[in-house]
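Me: I'm a chemist; would you kindly supply a protein sequence with its structure tokens?

Assistant:
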Amino acid sequence: MNKKIFPLLLLLPVVFLLGRLSAQEDVQPSCLMCAAEYLSLEEISKYMQVGRDKGITDQQLRSIDVGRAKVQIAVAHRGQIEQRIGRVAEHDLVTEVYYVLSGSGDIMTSPELIDSVRRADDNRAVMTLNGPGHNAADVRNGVSHQLKAGDVFIIPAGTGHEFTRIPDHITYLMIRVDPDKVVPLMNADESAKYLDEQL
């Protein structure tokens, strides 16, 4: 090996490491000086009560800007389903993460929608919950999962989903990831006002 090249080869890892360290030093928080957000069990329980008492399936508790995206927290309560309805939902831009609080149910998912219809712009879900999307009669190559209390389930944006059977009920917390920021903001004061109106 050429004696002039060997010392240069020894320096390459050092240069690489210094480059990585300097690149890491340039990284800035994507949400500079953003405050954390707290939701109490009491607040979540009030939403669950409203859902049960008034038959409201899906309610948003918060929608916050976290820099490059928004994140929403919602709670859903669904009653018994003995027979499949054939009402698939799909959200174009928002990913949903379910954490099942109580009950159980079978959910079917697939990105291949059959007979899909675009949701209207003035649809409550489009305007306040999960942005633009479709409803569909069915899905192709659907995969079914049995959800129960304690389970976590991720539905990527663009994936159709429908509960096909719920023996008694299912209640779940939702974390919605909204990178395109299509869902309006909702803070703790707006949440309190909503609950005052509902309870």
Observations:
- Residues 41-198 form a domain with the Jelly Rolls fold (CATH 2.60.120.10).
- The chain has a mean pLDDT of 91.
- The CA atoms of residues 88 and 136 lie 5 Å apart.
